[in-house]
Protein 1
Amino acid sequence: MAKRGVIIVAGGSGSRMQSAIPKQFLMLGGEPIVARTINTFSEAFPGAEIVVVLPEAHMPLWENLRARFDVAPHRIVAGGVERFHSVLNGINALSSEVEYIAVHDGVRALISKRLIIRAMLAAEEHDAVIPVVDVVDSYRRVEGENSYIVPRADLRIVQTPQIFNAQLLRDAYNVEFNAAFTDDASVVEARGGHITLVDGERTNIKITTPEDIALAECFLNLM
Ligand code: C5P
């Protein structure tokens, strides 16, 4: 079986949660958000290398939390200025033997094992895979005083884990940062890679604002 690596990015300081503690360390269902994320990946890929990217200033807080909760084995590395730099630090922390790399937002703690495995199987066939879901709202693009409807059928909401052939990802990240790089697929695409879409999950939300925590607790009760 191909050797798998996982990068869980939780290196942001997250101002939108309006909380002194970054959102990835808040409690969800009795454990820190990022602990749940790590454990789900460890169950999906037993024996995989897991690297967790954290804000340098919060590493002592995480050391304290990981000692108090049941968290699968993982290594930690410091984050960078943008998500791009945090992922790059994660790539550099994985061993060169890793053949496929899954990059996942630490705050997407409701990810299911099923989706992780399904996306990995697709990546082993197509090299660059991201989960997406359809949009249900209407969207408008604003240009100065005017706004224009965007055809909804053409849009998808992008989630993680984004899973790549490791060499493809390493080569793609060997580039200067560009503000258009909002996720890993955008970096791989800039290098000429083709992105394959798989069905994501509506419950795989990016816990970002205080109301997301309440929503996530509700989803947990349904799972
Ligand atoms: O900022 P954004 O909401 O796009 O963050 C998505 C994920 O990337 C979060 O899990 C966040 O912790 C992580 N991140 C990071 N390093 C940064 C910024 C964001 O690891 N500098």
Protein 2
Amino acid sequence: MEEVIFATGNEGKMREIRSILADTYPKILSMKEAGIRTEVTEDGKTYEENALMKARAVAAMATEAIVMADDSGLEVDFLNREPGIYSARYMGESTSYRIKNANLISRMEGVPEEKRTARFVCAIAAVLPDGREMTVRAAIEGRIGYEEKGEGGFGYDPIFFVPELGKTTAELTEEEKNLVSHRGKALRLMKEELKKL
Ligand code: IMP
């Protein structure tokens, strides 16, 4: 059984990745656990390009493992799908999400419900030990709220309202979010694609 290295340093993501992939891949390591350090400039034009760049950089140092990486973002339709691939860098990487979220809410002032549509998008890339590369993409649809709600999740979760659930993604437990999230869906898709090989 091959081991999987996921190119992230984010512990929350690692928990989600482990819970979804554990039945197929018992050994899943973060970059740190695999003893790999690399800085990748995420200057691709798509989520897929950015995810692939990260996966390739780690795969160059780990030839025996399946290396995966993800890239995600929030697309707000009314704002021409901003911040999109620049979601982490929106208003500056070190700016707090209180401020980023307040800014997005104010840019949406007066925008009616039906035009507040948005989605979280996630692409996952995998580089296999034989050099083959794959990408998958998934999304969760929602709307930009009128105020922050919920204490869970991270980033833009408090302003991302999911009409079917009647909650923001910050009001979901970690398990509930993994079932519906862009990343959860993309991880399950990737697992299915890898099984086909
Ligand atoms: P990353 O590529 O997964 O690191 O995500 C890039 C950025 O997109 C994050 O820094 C957040 O701003 C935003 N983002 C991605 N996924 C989520 C999520 O599940 N909730 C809230 N914000 C997210």
Protein 3
Amino acid sequence: MNAVKTLGQFIIEKQADFPYAKGELSRLLRDLGIAAKIVNREVNKAGLAGIIGDAGSTNVQGESQKKLDIYANEQFLAALQCGGECCILVSEENDDYIYIDSELSKNAKYIVAIDPLDGSSNIDVNVSVGTIFSIYRRKSTDGKATIADVLQRGIDQVAAGYIIYGSSTMLVYTTGKGVNGFTLDPSIGEFCLSHPNMEMPVDGNIYSINEGYYNHFPNGIKKYIKYCQVEDEKSHRPYISRYTGSMVADLHRSLIKGGIFIYPVTARAPNGKLRLVYECNPMAFIVEQAGGKASNGYQRIMELNVDDMHQRSAIVIGSMNMVAKAEELLQKY
Ligand code: P6P
């Protein structure tokens, strides 16, 4: 019987991969894991604790905020403030970035960008939701970190991960040396290594897109959807359509089973809906590290310039060969 390896043990063990690491990134990942367990506890009892439903306020996206959105944001901020390794937090729930100005964080080197509770419209109907995080080292070397430290391209991420609060709660992350998944064991309150060296199948037969917007999709995406629906036994088509409304859930499935997730530009979202800094880039880092592919249909997501911390992007992400086919049709039509 293999001994259980906890997230904490794994992080320390892998610290050796970074000869110059002095433990800061390890502690930062630990802090995020702690917040994830606290958020998990509230998500799991959302229906009971009376904290579901709109908080009334709206976030920078103009979306009505569920109370759990706010709660999750507060928990991750608190964990990062206590941990002392993060100097700036960018969050979907905050219009501007939060500078963590404390004695404990005065030498902090890391920038964290987070979607604290992605897919939160699913909370009230008990569909999986998730947290997405992205970690950068500050580029500036003295004084306060500034917006220039925030607006870094995805290729400069030092780590990225997500937590999926589903039938079980998992934390999946990469530091650029592969992808590893940990499942929360509530009986000991620890994330335990359950999916070592995750690899995304290069092919798959599940496509994930909100076909309700079909009429507003670019022609190439319409062609790809029809391609998915054609009968062709050799290529296992027609594919299966799955769309949960939670990017984390749809991408987690694709990571394990193979598949493609697409959120293209539409009439309602001319620049795409998903956020580059704290949704697209971290998920692209994870998917690429697992052998998948992530673009906006034309350019690699992680090479896109970042001009605004809340900027949106179209995204075509998932199994290598499926993304390549979608890109081919997008670029052709
Ligand atoms: P739509 C959730 O709000 C989210 O940001 C992603 O998690 C999800 O994939 C997408 O938006 C759903 O958007 O327009 O299909 O409801």
Protein 4
Amino acid sequence: MKIKEILSEEGKEQKISAKGWVRTRRGSKHVSFIALNDGSTINNIQIVAEGDSFNEELIKQITTGSCISVDGELVTSKGSGQAVEILANKIEVLGAADAEEYPLQPKKHSLEFLREKAHLRFRTNTFSAIFRLRHALTFAVHKFFNDKGFFNLHTPIITGADAEGAGEMFQVTNLDLENLPKTSDGKIDFESDFFGSKTNLTVSGQLEAELGALALGQVYTFGPTFRAENSNTSRHLSEFWMIEPEVAFADLETNMDLAEEFLKYCIQYCITHNADDLQFLDKRMGDEERNLKKEERSEMGLLERLQFVLENDFVRLTYREAIDVLRNSKPNKKKKFKYLIDGFGADLQSEHERYLVEKKYKKPVIITDYPKGIKAFYMRMNEDNETVRAMDILFPTIGEIIGGSQREERLDKLQARMEEMDVDQEELWWYLETRKFGTCKHAGFGLGFERLIMFVTGMKNIRDVIPFPRTPQNAAF
Ligand code: ATP
Ligand code: MN
């Protein structure tokens, strides 16, 4: 039985067996108390090993990190701290863990240290909780869209387009880098590369998802994306997972409503299904923040913050309104921002986003209608010819969690933007054909999955919410 099930068997005394990894063992010569965890829940089951069948040799092998199997009786616990425990009849050590060498001792380790032990960090309470929540969120994403009649579309990971418009790409090749084939004019001959053309890892599945939406109506992607940006921040990974819904006949209003409902659904799903894990992480965040200076502490605990997002409407304002608010804000007037806001056209930096979300409105904020110059070519042009129907959703402590837009469905306007922004129209001929044949209004967005997990778990570094993070200079494990 899984420990999660065993712990809910209160009052039903029975023969039972369990397998798992030892968190701690304490006790005396005559009796040992073992805290056992099998990953099914944050909670451990207590194993009591008493009597002659447990010789010293066996007990010595039951150390933190070792893997054991236990047969015994489930009984009401005599001690405090747990309702039930297992009185062991037989214990078998399936895999010992040398106590001198095992890196995870029953004490607090730093997150940095645990990143270097990413192969074992699943065995800590913190990381097992995070990865159970990551699973719950994955499941919630699929359930949300499935229940709404969306179709999951698997868009390619290797792409021939290098104009997806979302940042630097990783090239995919099997050419011999020591001996590159050249064309007659001295350039690299990609015709002799594996795919017969230059290829990259995708930075977004959006363009292909649009093709799906303009036939299947509503689709979503949920896959890995890759960005070769050298931004070593706590919110960027080189390999991250993105969820990208795309909806035919939708405008930006519908898009915002969908995104807000979606985020709230995912958060509620975790509160309903992963209460133990969230409670643990709530306490963890509280403990962590007690060591911070008062002004660096969050105003709300983790659970309180999640509840708060569920209960409040997101604030919606245009870029122009946001710029006015920022220009007249205290930190701007007192020159406290690193990048001062002087007017229309400025790109919002994370300091500005955090001011709006954490200081000014104290709620998630959706900013719409950005200047065309700082957004991608496929966003729908507004009447003013200066702004596009873009939306960014900003979350407390995270900053941008979603970026989306109503797409430009008018062929002439789309081509004009591509011209202006120097995007290769020949390469994207297939994208342009959807505007030529049966085009319609449509919209969509991209949610960075790890940023959502950061918000739900309260983790402050994105490297701690993906099993094996890929960042500049690091692809270990
Ligand atoms: P940012 O300004 O934070 O770099 P972006 O504008 O480049 O984000 P988009 O291209 O709109 O982001 O991608 C959609 C979403 O994907 C973002 O809102 C964010 O949640 C997430 N995202 C973008 N880049 C990364 C990254 N390098 N690592 C993790 N998540 C990312
Ligand atoms: Mn970016």
